[in-house]
Amino acid sequence: MPKLTLTNSSALLAQCEPGKRKTDYYDDTVTGFVLECRSSGGKSYYIRFDQAGRQKQFKIGRFEDITFAAAKKAAQKLRSEVVMGGDPSARKAEAKAVPVYSELAAQHLADAKLHQRSYDTTEGYMRLHILPKWGKMRLTEIDGRAVAHWLADKRAEGLAPATVVKIKAIFGRSFELGARWGVPGCERNPVRGVQSKPLNNARERYLTSAEATRLLAAAEKSRNPQLAAVVGLLLLTGMRVSELLSTRWEHVDVERRTLHVPTSKTGRSRHVPLARAAVDIIEHLPKATGAVFLFPSQKDPRKHLTTIKHGWQTARDTASLPGLRVHDLRHSAASFMVNSGVDLFAVGKVLGHANVASSSRYAHLSQDTLIAAVEAGAAKQAQPA
Asked: In this predicted structure, what is the pLDDT of residue 15?
């Protein structure tokens, strides 16, 4: 066990003794500070100590990766920790027990597949954006400042603000689940403290009666035989397109004029009231023997239609309504109801809003109706007797 006053020069010149696999040089100024020289030519700094009758060691770093001054300073700090009863090697073992993010992500996705309707969205964002950056990092190495810079870079890349918010939410959700499951390293959520810029990407388009008529006429001419019925029911019910396309025949009660939605975006079930025109559309839908869904897939009747994308785009363009989204039909249904004098609470119930705030976006429509009413009154007063 050769001793040596370790210095930058002596460490540089130290070599493994001939015929040995390795030689340890113990510093004679810092107890337990060791330079290990191997026959291969490699060298490493360690701190070695006794604890509970057992000798342990903690690797400070390789000779080529750390300066002598930094190694000695680390050795002094670690020696102080040992004297105070600490165990650097145990701390290192605990750190190694913390999984990398990709392991937590796999658990997150497994949970999402069981409980989340938008699994594909979560998986896509995680695969394309989150895992490439954080997948190989241990959970305790991820800090809020780095997350904030990363999200800022995502915005700078040109991603939509709503997309960046979604990425942040999914990333934070991983740590929330990890904390619930007791995953080491999830005691602190590095995403929680990251501030998001106020998001104002509301984009609401309301069809006029004339535009709705043009759209329905274009849908009637579509090569998709189901498109006209889908568009008509969306305008009459204000349902989300995913809710309508997944509706089963057993969920429709023509006598009571209701349509049951077992699970909505809010996580609650609801009954959608059906106007007489909506009932007429449903009663004219083709229904094969044993049919399950109102809008079955043309490829597999046992499954429901999942998208109207191509037919929709053609009908929208034919009706000269560029940029109109399918979701805008939900806004338009609300607009027609509000402008007919229906109060916002009732509109919210029809649309299945979880709170009044969601319905308040249509308040200006009722105000327009009231203004039109007083203008009509004023015009009447201005007419000569």
From this structure: 92
Q: Is the model more confident about 126 or about 86? A: 126
Q: Find, among 277, 254, 377, the residue nearest to 336 by Cα.
A: 277
For the ranges 157-166, 199-208, 259-268, the one whose mean pLDDT is highest: 157-166
Cα 103 to chain center, whole Å? Answer: 17
The DSSP symbol for 41 reads: S
Of the chain, the end-to-end C-alpha distance in Å amounts to 119
CA 307/CA 372 separation, integer angstroms: 38
Which is nearest to 204 in space by CA: 307, 338, 343, 310? 338
Spell out where the chain has E strands: 3-4, 22-27, 33-38, 43-51, 54-62, 252-253, 258-261, 270-273
The answer on pLDDT for 48 being more than 80 is yes
Residue in 124, 129, 130 with CA at minimum distance from that of residue 112:
124
Q: For residue 337, give both structure tokens.
A: 């109801």
- SS3 readout for 276-326: HHHHHHHHCCCCCCCCCECCECCCCCCCECCCCHHHHHHHHHHCCCCCCCC
Q: Model confidence at 142, in pLDDT bands (50, 70, 90)?
A: very high
Per-residue tokens: 206: 């309301």
Six token digits for residue 325: 């989204």
Predicted model pTM: 0.52
Longest dimension (CA), the chain: 123
